[in-house]
Input
Amino acid sequence: MEKKLRRSHNQMIGGVCAGIADYLNLDVTLVRVAYVLLSVLSAGFPGILVYIILMLVMPLE
Output
């Protein structure tokens, strides 16, 4: 079966991090912490913009 990148219903805001974690078979908490660290280290705004774009582009599971 083909694996597809989709937003998850296991969501805090939009399900993007949970969807990425499901796709990569990683723990959701690790993906969320990595996203927050990446956003903070890149001055915050680009990370928020990428999250919003992914939330609009990725379909729900």
